[in-house]
Design brief:
single chain; about 400 residues; mainly alpha; 18 helices; about 55% helix; elongated
Length: about 400
């Protein structure tokens, strides 16, 4: 059974909530600045050297709030505030360098500004610096340093860093593997409402890793994340209903949650929904719908779905029978190690003389042989583990305070 848990720490970064950290060097007797401060007054204070005003003005330009959006002006004022020691501005200036917003992308400069903010205790900057160490972007890759900076942010109560640190304990990345510690950090983040941590905690309960196995608690945390719209948790919750784990078995509910995740583009949910239509579990059997959802998943590289697209072509269910297409999809799945697809290829090779044109004739009947049914049961949970170290990954979006 496949179960989904997002352990790759960098993937949580786009979920961060704003964290405003008191800026070092801000004038203690400076005028109070609020969201209601007029643009003219804010500009006047910024030009007079008030670091908080400079930061707030940068944010307005960055977000196009009460002024035309301008990356150039945002960069200018973030830099002014950052140079005065404003830790949030230092983080946001680092984020602009990391993404190339308003400036030539420069990871080394991003690291420099993240570090300034991080050393002042800004949890977002600490988390961003951890990501740079983890990816080796602008600095030598160092998983131990990444873990150290995640820990600093996590100990301040910053939920994305808590989840990331939990993921490191779960995988032994930069720290000694320790499932109990993983659970402890996931729990802290989950209790703050972070959906990815709730999903991860649900997985630990389901598998009994670092905590006593408890499928009802797994369902509880999957549902928490699913109710927030987290696609992987919706897939997992659907699988719990399909398999009757922690809840009464209910294919209608399984279809309900699979569909929600599938419509968000989650490939395992798409494959599972295809299986439900293929077999008529919780829905009226419909091979056309099965093909639709299997193909969506197959095109994202889901091996089970690729095998089943091949199956539908082999039998000509909802599509014209086409052995060449069947073989092509089986080969895609088999190349990923899918055992059923390899069995199908072996069967085709062994029975190639049973068809009119050795599986090249899309109108042939297969010689009357029907292979054993090897379809998935529609109860796959969704859990790609973190990729091996050194696997190229897309750059995560850095966290800005805005």
């Amino acid at each position: 059974m496949k179960i989904r848990i997002i352990l790759w720490a960098a993937l949580v970064l786009c979920l961060a909530q704003p964290l405003l950290v008191e800026a070092a060097g801000t004038q203690t007797n400076a005028p109070t600045i609020s969201a209601n401060t007029s643009l003219d007054q804010l500009t006047s204070l910024a030009q007079a050297g008030n670091a908080d005003a400079q930061f707030q003005l940068a944010r307005r330009y960055d977000n196009g709030q009460d002024v035309a959006q301008s990356d150039r002006q945002a960069l200018y004022w973030y830099r002014k505030a950052a140079e005065k020691g404003h830790s949030v501005a230092q983080n946001d200036l680092g984020a602009m360098y990391a993404t190339g917003q308003g400036v030539i992308q420069d990871y080394a400069q991003a690291v420099s500004w993240y570090r300034k903010g991080a050393e002042q205790g800004n949890a977002i900057a600490q988390t961003n610096l951890a990501v740079m160490y983890s990816y080796g972007s602008g600095i030598a890759k160092d998983e131990k340093q990444a873990a150290a900076w995640y820990r600093k942010a996590a100990e301040q109560g910053y939920a994305p860093a808590q989840n990331a640190l939990g993921a490191r304990y779960a995988t032994g990345l930069g720290v000694a593997k320790d499932f109990a510690q993983a659970v402890a950090w996931y729990q802290k983040a989950a209790e703050q409402g972070l959906a990815i941590a709730q999903n991860n905690l649900g997985y630990m309960y389901q598998e009994g890793k670092g905590i006593a196995k408890n499928e009802k608690q797994a369902v509880y945390w999957y549902r928490k994340a699913a109710d927030q719209g987290y696609a992987d948790a919706r897939t997992n919750l659907g699988a719990m209903y399909r398999n009757g784990q922690g809840v009464a078995q209910d294919d209608t509910q399984a279809v309900y949650w699979y569909r929600k995740a599938a419509e968000q583009g989650e490939s395992t949910a798409q494959s599972n929904l295809g299986a439900m239509y293929y077999s008529g579990w919780g829905v009226t059997q419909d091979y056309a719908q099965a093909m639709l959802w299997y193909r969506k998943a197959a095109e994202q590289g889901d091996a089970d779905a690729q095998n089943m697209v091949g199956e539908l072509y082999f039998y000509g269910w909802s599509v014209p029978q086409d052995y060449s297409q069947a073989m092509a999809w089986y080969q895609k799945a088999a190349a990923q190690g899918n055992a059923n697809a390899q069995k199908n290829l072996d069967w085709m090779a062994a029975h190639s003389n049973d068809t009119a044109q050795n599986y090249g004739d899309t109108g042939s009947t297969g010689g009357g042989h029907r292979r054993p049914d090897n379809r998935p049961n529609g109860g796959n949970n969704n859990r790609p583990l973190s990729p091996p170290q050194g696997t190229p990954m897309p750059k995560p979006a850095p966290i800005s305070s805005k």
